[in-house]
Amino acid sequence: MLSSEQAKPLPYNDPAHWDKMVTAYEAQSQPFTTLFADAAVATLPIGPSSKVLDVATGTGAAALAAARTGAAVTAIDFSAGMVARVRAHGLPNIEARQMDGQALDLPDAAFDAAVSVFGVMLFPDWRAGLREMARVTRSGGSAAIAVWKSADGAAVHLLLSQIIRRLYPDNITPMPCTGLAELADPGRFAAAVIAAGFSEPVVAEITHDFKLNVANPGDVDKLFEFMPHWSGLDADKSAAVARTFRAEIDSRRVGDIFAIPSTALIATALRP
Ligand SMILES: C[S@@+](CC[C@H](N)C(=O)[O-])C[C@H]1O[C@@H](n2cnc3c(N)ncnc32)[C@H](O)[C@@H]1O
To answer: Which of 152, 220, 221, 267 has the fewest Cβ atoms surrounding its Cβ within 10 A?
Structure first.
């Protein structure tokens, strides 16, 4: 069982983990995160003359949304695989670069707007991630940052954590991702955005269904393996949790689709 962030590096903080996930992420997660990325980008006053930074771009959900406004987009991620995927779109107004979001290799005040969708919240030093977004945003520029409204995240992770909490409350360790837990609260999120160097944060709540394809139960089980709470269970408990998960699916599925409502917080703020 994970007892702390230091006990075992989280998969989320290992670029090699994300390198392996590119194809699956693009197929299963990006259609879902795009719903939130589009909403985050829509809060930014950007257009063809704007320079926009997307921090922890993944397969490019927010970068692609910003690029559709005509803005010149810099998309960064610490995973070489993710960066290669964004480059492969071949869009002339997206430059994808491999970089750590906690220490951006970018000049001060270089961007009119900065966005991060489900990225900064995962960084071990998420405060540095937010400060770096503020540093590279020009005075008068703006930012949009999306996080989950639950310390348990979203989608399969959210439902799995709820089930484990119900069946084996002693097996839920303190959330190892401190940013995920801290920023899940609208008041604390707004305060963190201000502490990073932004002003006038407005935090909005938005919910979408994660549509899990449950046609093949074996595929669903495979999703558990990267989840910290799952790896803390012994064989008997993980079997019981998987049975409960499958029962929930069977009670609420519509055909091959099982919807998991997931709520995000999107903070929009200005750079003084
Ligand atoms: C949950 S995905 C979000 C991707 C995308 N923004 C989206 O909404 O679909 C998290 C991304 O953060 C990236 N990431 C994690 N830690 C990072 C860091 N320290 N610096 C840059 N990128 C990081 C991962 O490689 C991954 O692509």
So the answer is: 221
